Batch of 4 targets.
Target 1
Amino acid sequence: MSKTEIDRVTTEFYGAFDNRDGKAADVDRIRRLVLPQGVIVCTAPAFTAYSVEEFIAPRERLLSDGRLVEFSEWETSEETRIEGDIASRFGTYRKSGVLDGKPYEGEGTKTLQFVRTPDGWRIAALSWFDRP
């Protein structure tokens, strides 16, 4: 059951950025999936550490102001290890959309740290890097 729930939370996380077919991205769901004190770090192309709110704000703007449309991001491989009430997931992902009127594609690696809370599995931390 734990792996199934972690798979669901991960899929929901990636899906939060989807604005294909004119639908609005639901980045607000990040607030439910990631602990309020969670840490989010991008290591490349530039190292940046975010709070949950610092992570959400620019993505919400970018996905709703018309600059990035038809965007989606999805996991392409993963390895999950669960030990009691903690879990770690290491995976690769791809993304695509239209940025400023031009096709946009990319890929990278994410690692997510999960904890089991009274409300189910939540993301405590995540880190990623985009491949050039």
Target 2
Amino acid sequence: MNRPQPNEYPAWGETYISKVNGDVFEILNDQTQSLPALFRANADKADYAYAEGKWTLKEMLGHIIDAERVFAYRITCFARNDQQPLPGFEENDYVLNARFAQRDLEDLIEEFIALRKANLYLFKSLNEEELNRNGIASGREINVKSILFIAAGHIIHHISILKERYHVV
């Protein structure tokens, strides 16, 4: 699948789409194993935040799970040609109200795996027409294909943050 064109997504999407190099479905599938492996290898840092007011590793994973759900919902709505505008989501409020710090890291890891695997069935079922359908999310037009790339790039983005700021290995 070709990379989405800049006119197919809002400017903020470039942050994530630009990080996707290769087959987006392979990347999405590989992340089902690579992201859990990264968190498991750093389980001793589950409650670590690199600075005051920053998310812990568990909160970061919780945010990734929340974003995955939002992306999948948007993909479902737009692929099914639902023309209702969808709201944005405030990631900091979601994390603040989710109690991820009280959750078990392994449970969060398993939740991500189950969610991504389920979403892959949807993602891979989409045909060219569905991938090119547009919708409005957060007040901006975007197409389904772009959201797939954003979902993959979002995780790549957070893995970079985990390595740079949390010093995970």
Target 3
Amino acid sequence: MELDEQGRPIPPLSGDEAVTLLGFLDHQRATLAWKCSGLDAAGLRSTVGASTMTLGGLLKHLAFAEDWWFSRRLHGHAPAPPWNAVDWGADVDWDWNSAAGDTPEQLLALWQDSVARSRSLTAEALADGGLEHPARRPQSDGQVPSLRWILCHVIEEYARHNGHADLLRESVDGLTGS
């Protein structure tokens, strides 16, 4: 695997569809890890302008997104801790809001564990139907996304939030780069 100057895997220039999608997803995951690396709790709590968004909140939100899409939706698993104990009706943004009470080590471990589970669950689905593998839990409208759709959606989720991470990290210590 070829790495860039920040240690992120470079998506393959050629490969089948699954290898290409997974390469881009791993690059986006590594971008978030890079933007959050080496920061203390204050750095992970920093905001930009009027926004309340933080890098710590991004880590926790993307940990939730990983579990939601690959464990809950794709495989139909019940919510795992800490998501199973959240009263989402009381705070629909609990993942974002509760991150300020977590240490950097807790946030990174939660996100890294979620990514590791997602990789394993993705490999399982690829072995059992490939990119056409249907999600076990349909959308609210009854439509059933494929693993292909879920991968594209999660890539988009990371890409969008990595843009936020660029601004947040630069405001903390001036680190820039794509």
Target 4
Amino acid sequence: MTMTEQSATLVEEEAARCAHHDGHGPGAGGEAPESPRERVNRRWNEVLQETRVTQTGVQILFGFLLSVAFTPLFRELGTVDHVIYVTTVVLGASATGALIAPVSIHRFLSGQRMKDEVVEAACRLMMCGMVLLALTIGCTLLLILRFVVPGVLAEVLVVGVMLWFGLCWYALPLRIRRRAARRSGADEA
């Protein structure tokens, strides 16, 4: 079989597998169980996609934060705002490290037959990075709003935004997970 024929066969097999998992192929009423290898490969691909999205955002935000110190208005900020800025930069650097770490872990451990461990570590680092990213965004917003909005309105707005992040990023997924677990438990009974 030539390389072209092998590629075509692989593409057809992948399309059939995707159609089956998307509910468009044979047995479209329920999902076929994944093998452990398929599951870890799927989870790794999901982590890679998530990492691409978050890395881009955190790197842009971190670049913005680094440039702020070199603006003329930065020197006019008070001590509290300088502390907020330093905290924000440290959080941004930490978020960047946590969100890029899965790439480094994969590179160091590639070929060591440790994909389960790599995926688990990457998932934990992504969760940590997302918390750090939320805190970085909150501190960035606080720094900007304290400069633009008078009084305690800046703090109130930041608290509102952070509650929104908590709802969207953490509470909603946990609620969906609990609901699915209850539904699964009811289906088994």
